Amino acid sequence: MASGTLAQSGASVVARRSSGVWRDAFGRLRRNKLAMVGLALVLLLVFMGVLGPTLAPFPYYAQDIEAITANGFRPLHPFEPLSMETGHWLGTDELGRDSLSRLLDGAQISLAVALVVQIVVLVIGMPIGAIAGWFGGRIDNILMRFTDVMYAFPDLLLIILMSVTFRNTWLGQQFNGLLLVFIAIGLTSWVTVARLVRGQLLSLKEIEFVEAARAIGVRDRNIVTKHLLPNSIGPVIVAITLGIPGAILAEATLAFLGVGVQPPRASWGSLINEGVRYIRSDPHLVLLPAIAIATSLISFTFLGDGLRDALDPKLKGKQ
Amino acid sequence: MTSSSNVSVEEQSTVEITLGDQLATEVREREAKRAKAENLLEVRNLSTHFYTPDGVVRAVDEVSFELGYGETLGLVGESGCGKSVTALSISRLVADPPGKIVSGEILFEGVDLLKLSPEAMRKLRGKDIGFIFQDPVTSLNPTLTIGYQIAESIRQHMGLPAKAAKDRVVELLAKVGIPRPKDRYTDYPHQFSGGMRQRVMIAIALSCDPKLLLADEPTTALDVTIQAQILELIQRLSEEFRTSVLLITHDLGIAAGMCQRINVMYAGRIVETGNVDTMFENPRMPYTWGLLDSLPRLDDIRGSRLRTIEGLPPLLINVPDACRFNPRCAYARDVCREKEPVLTVREENHEARCWGTQADGWIPQ
Asked: Which of B127, B133, B145 sits opposite A217 (nearest CB)?
């Protein structure tokens, strides 16, 4: 009996759970305060993006004529007595639309930008980088020169050209005109990931486990997808996370210039565009979306930096 | 209809044979060759060159040897003499470019591997030819579980359902001496020690019951006690699975303990070949003497220097027609610098490539 329990307790000491790369990485991430702040804010953004429209006190297009009439036909400012009374805590715009509701609706667009653009980036960048890195030689040369051309092309110009050209096609109609913008942004931002994956594959394919996989008859396709790409996923995740702020900013820039989402919907960029006319009298119309943009950019950057350190601890402190 | 029903049984079978598709005849021919083949592996005049900016490196130059069923053959020599490239050439894993198998035949059960299509060769690798690499640390993929990596070969070649494949992996892990194999199935390589990783590599190499095992310095990265265990394991499993082994090593002690026959390689050539006993008793090539002499001995005077072969192996670019060992050979004469000797029979099962030790040579027994 006694020996039985002893053996059992011994077994429980010996038996460890498999600790994967991801668990280790998350452990390191948790110790990074800035990254955790970033993660919390990112989760908040996700929360707002997914549930925003249901949480919003008003529909984003509803005008509260009574409230602005009572205010002398001027936008309500945040936290004024009248704002609190009518339920527009963060005020309204010049048409009496609730600022908080419009911000929450804009969060959805920003979240969609973050997702769709990065999916486009992955779908284009990973295969191009993987093919270039794996085959090398002439194929690599052709693909990388193409990548260089894409890199050198002025992004904003290409996005605006695409948006304007395809505005009236089927693609231009999808998702309130946003899908086209997202794809256009994605088409200009895959370059970093393609180069990254190529570089990773160039070094990874020299490691012996590739030869070992060949020696047991694994197909080339499976060597790339099962052996090499999973090994390069860390830096790719970091690049994707750090690419999101750029995409959100690009969308905001376009919206500010009037390309992309069409009224009455508004992304944070177009909110700024609308509010710029009233910047002296009603600065909250610009400040609130600007703060929202800045916060989400910083939170994704913090998270991305944290992930880089967590996924590649050797790099930490070097830079 | 009626006419065909009248055809006799013999005629029908001949009709079937003539109508038999190309593939069937090919398979039958291959089977016939297989039945005729005396040796599992016959390498004939194999040359593998590397095309570098500095010139053509003849890493393996006209190498011939054979490996019988169930035999363990040693391939011995110092670094850069072409041992590994020979093994890689057999499994056609030489990186191309810069490497290229320029000539020769590699008859595996009578079938020339160099003439197989890349796809046929891929199907052979891992199934009939297992490979153990030198460094178990870099030969396992850090992002995949041990179980997955062993099962990968089984899935590729045996077409077992997932459950059966897993059972086989657990069985293999137990066979190579990994404790609690069921629990370790889902572990990652970093949770294994070097010796255990090499056991995993052996499990991968033996997972499909290969007929030939190419072991490229399987114990070089391991310490001596683990080395002994791993060698014992390879020997035991090769007997159990009736696998022929080509053991590549720079350690004559290992070769002597494991192999029935030994090929000594120098500068891309086989310079001496023979049965272990005859060769160690009566080596007929100064290079082999040097190798044997370089082994530390128990009766060495403490603190005395270890003996080495002076000099370095030659660059294998623009090799002159001369004995390749002559710059380092204490017995070299003019003839050694003018003409390369050929492998000549010295006694039964023993050949050497040396002018000086031939019957009319100047080097005394």
From this structure: B127
